[in-house]
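step: validate -> pass
step: tokenize input -> pass
step: predict -> running
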Amino acid sequence: MQLEDLKSPDVAALSRDTPVVLPIASLEQHGRHLPLFTDSMLCGEVLRRAAPRLGDRVLIAPLFWLGSSHHHMDHAGTMSAEPRLYLDTLSGLLENWIAHSFKRLVLLNGHGGNIVPGAQAVFEVRQRHRGRKDLLLLSATYWLLGGDPAGSVPGLRQRRMGHACEWETSMVLRIAPGLVGDYEGAEPVEPGRAFEPADRGWTMPDRSAPGHVGDPSAASAEKGEALLRHFAEGLAAFLERVVAWDGRSWEG
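step: predict -> pass
step: emit ->
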């Protein structure tokens, strides 16, 4: 069920064991061929496809489109929250729901730059409520929930998510082809492995002049449909685990 469709008394009447899903994404450059709203569009679409399987057992908040995107600020159109402000904002969203006595909260992420602040937000909020044994605070990224999609997506070249890459371009080709520019002429940009397993601070120009990472030229709408189906199934299965959590144990 969608939060924006409910009245305050409707929310007040819900079981406080109802999981609340808070989708978060971004508005940022996606190379020369994909729209700025790509991450938000795709996160919303995956969640839209997963939602019917959950029905009224899960409460879904409106998507929060502003993300942690400072590494894309060299490219026009990108909007980004200051990193520490973004972390505090995510923490505040979780605290809002705790104040309303809800206990199962999921930050559902659709942007790579939000992975670290999402994980840190659930960590910090949990420490503030460390005496509570009934809280389940989770941060999850949709493309990491269903395992490697290679087995269910014929012809897939990339083995991991990039940026404005084969995966993202394929999915946008499926849901909004009119917004896709010249992806077939885009040169592949390898993700690189410099300094791994360390984490290097970077900006997009460090990695890619055109602003994409991966191989957009390999994209197709058929791959996009298969990817969306794979990710939606993974998300639905994950949220089923949240619904079924016993309210106490470490395991879901």
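step: describe -> The first helix runs from residue 8 to 12.
step: cleanup -> pass
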